[in-house]
Amino acid sequence: MKKLGLHIQIFIGLVAGLIFAMLSIRLGWSTTFTVNYIKPFGTIFLNSLKMIAVPLIFASLIIGITNIEDITKLSRIGGKTFFIYTTTTILAVILGLTIANLARPGQIISEQTRDRLMSLYGDQAEQHGDVLQQINQGGPLQFLIELIPENLFKALSDNFHLLQVVVVAITLGIALLKIPLRKSKPVILFFEGLNDAIIELIRFIMQLAPLGVFALVASLLIEVAGGNSPSEILEILFALLWYIATVILGLLLLTYVIYPIILKLFTKIGYTHFFKSIQPAQLIAFTTSSSSAALSVTMEQVEKHLGVSEDICSFVLPLGATVNMDGTALYQGVAIVFIAQALGINLSISAQLMIVANVAISSIGVASVPGAAMITTTMILQSIGIPAVGLALILAPDRILDMCRTATNITGDALVAVLIGSSEGELTEMTNEQLLETG
Ligand code: ASP
Fold it and tell me: Whole-prediction pTM value?
């Protein structure tokens, strides 16, 4: 019997997790069983993916850069990558703002819901404000200081400093190109070996994917339901339905309409082939809400199934997972307009242009972990004069929207890898057999 494709297996895991959680909530099963015996498999899977994120980003960026060899080619690819990442992020936030201005989700929620959300989530919103205040204490150039770790090993030791890891990897890669080959070769070989071993590790980890995804989805839903009655949660989500629908509609439009148009204009890769190839990565991003946890799968799929050369993948994708967040940018556009509308604040065109600039710049600093966008959203709210406590209005559905925007984030990264691969002539023509295999 033909083995089911990975994306189908993961999808089955996801649906099974959903059904299990619904049954468990409906029938009032004890959550202890899920927490003690199901959740651990999700945690093991998630930790395994997180465990390889830092070494993968570090090693693959270094070999990506050193394999490109020629500094001129490197700056050309770097320039293109930067340009496309910035353009697609700006496009995403403009789309988010446009949809939110048309759908007006903030004008639909009642005053009663607004007050209820403020009282339920006000404290949580304030906590985000406090974190932001700590960050702001450093002055306007603090973000530049944050780019350089005072201790490389400290930066490598947690998943919150990926931007620092990226900066060090890029500069180290360039430095390796500048020293004599006799000296750089052993270092490069070390990272190549490490990178290959990590790719092998990913294969082991992915065997766990269907079970891991099942456990993650089941435990997440059951925990979200937590002490609250499902009807209470549903009631809140229902009150915010128009807002949730606006974000999801925007993400679907960006992912399945705008990206394919760009794909069609600049590459020969077909719609079905592209989406079938990246589906496993989208599902992992969706369930983990973390672009960096999904990075290993994104790299594997883009290289093996979309035929983008290893050099381009190793450079573009780790960078994208850390700095390119189109889904998050679109989400922030909608969320900020929603909060402003709900609080009765009128956003002028210049305020909205400021949102575009702020989102595009700050999305670079959004860590690729669950819920990371909340801090930068607080920052942008404050910068355009909206009370940060307005964040309370969007916290309830954040996790589910985080899952959706993270799937878009990694799709955007894959798209850019394909665009760069195609423009550099480093896209393998797939044979019909290979195309069938990817299905
Ligand atoms: N969870 C997102 C990611 O990892 C970041 C965010 O939007 O909060 O890409």
Answer: 0.88
425: exposed, middle or buried (Cβ count in 10 Å: 0-12, 13-18, 19+): exposed
Q: How far is the CA of 363 from the centre of ligand 1 (A)?
A: 9
pLDDT band, very low/low/confident/very high, at 439 (cuts 50, 70, 90): very low
Best probe residue, ligand 1, of 323, 328, 362, 413 (max atoms within 8 Å of C-beta): 328
Q: Is the separation of the CB atoms in 369 and 292 below 8 Å?
A: yes
* CA dist list (Å): 284 to 206, 290, 297, 427: 10, 8, 8, 24
Ligand 1 neighbours by CB, cut-off 6 Å:
289-291, 325, 328, 366, 368-373, 402, 405-406, 409
Cα distance between residue 11 and residue 30, in whole Å? 26
Residue type, 365: G
Predicted confidence (pLDDT) per residue in 87-139, tens digit: 999 999 999 999 999 999 988 888 888 887 888 778 878 777 676 666 666 67
Residue 398 contacts residue 237 (beta carbons within 8 Å):
no
